[in-house]
Amino acid sequence: MTHAAHTEQARIGAILEELKTTYPDAKTELSHRNPFELLISTILSAQATDKSVNAASPALFARYPDAPSMAQATPDEVEPFIRSIGLYRNKAKNCVATSQALTERFGGEVPEDFDAILSLPGVGRKTASVVLANAFGRPAIAVDTHVGRLSRRLGLSSATNPDKVQRDLEAVFPRDSWIFLHNALIFHGRRVCLARLPACEVCTLKHLCPSSRV
């Protein structure tokens, strides 16, 4: 290993340790009691805040507690429960279609398999990774806007394509850290490394970040 590669490996290790110190309990902020609720909540969270999803989901899941019950609903029946969330009409269609697919193809249960989850209506790689990691404890790094932005600012990836960012992160961080890393980067992106004006002056990673303004 070259000196430059060794130095970079040390920097990456230091980033991970700093995140562990700053966000020791980092986990998904989407409220859920089981894989089905996490799957539906993650679908609802696209271009919406976790707070708005968590406000709407209790009533939604009280009415439709599992895939078979939601599969019997129409999108028009689901819409009133999620009207406060952005893009609610399209999301209602995806929630019903996904519930139908779960019921018809997987016995009403969320499969513990990336490609199977990815095959569900309205589910992309990010959603599949979130569910696999947070519902089943399977190592995965889901790349949302926060993870992508921080990866580029921290010099961990130059890619803008989420799939490429995911591969770049998984190549340099230990597999057993992937779930934590995903959630910790989201915490940091929401609280410190904001999109428009990062708070570099209070950032615990500033001495490790090539984009730091201080």
Describe the SSE topology:
Blueprint: H1 3-22, H2 35-44, H3 50-63, H4 67-71, H5 75-82, H6 88-105, H7 114-118, H8 125-136, H9 145-153, H10 162-172, H11 178-191
Helix pairs in contact: 2-8, 5-6, 9-11
Helix content: 55-70%
Largest sheet: none
Number of strands: 0
Strand content: under 5%
Terminal residue distance: 31 Å
Taken in chain order, the helices and strands follow as HHHHHHHHHHH
CATH architect. name of the largest domain: Orthogonal Bundle
The chain-level mean pLDDT equals 95
Poorly predicted regions are: none
Give the name of the CATH superfamily of the largest domain: Hypothetical protein, domain 2
How would you describe this structure in keywords?
single chain, 214 residues, Endonuclease Iii, domain 2, 2 domains, 11 helices
Summarize the structure.
The chain is an all-alpha fold and about 210 residues long.
Describe what you observe in this structure:
The chain has 214 residues and is an all-alpha fold. It has two domains: 3-27 and 141-208, Helix-hairpin-Helix base-excision DNA repair enzymes (C-terminal) (Endonuclease Iii, domain 2, Orthogonal Bundle); 35-136, Hypothetical protein, domain 2 (Endonuclease III, domain 1, Orthogonal Bundle). Helix content is 59%, strand content 0%. It is built from eleven helices and no strands. The protein has helices at 3-22, 35-44, 50-63, 67-71, 75-82, 88-105, 114-118, 125-136, 145-153, 162-172, 178-191. The longest helix is centred in the N-terminal third of the chain and has 20 residues, at 3-22. It is elongated and about 60 Å long. 39% of the residues are buried.
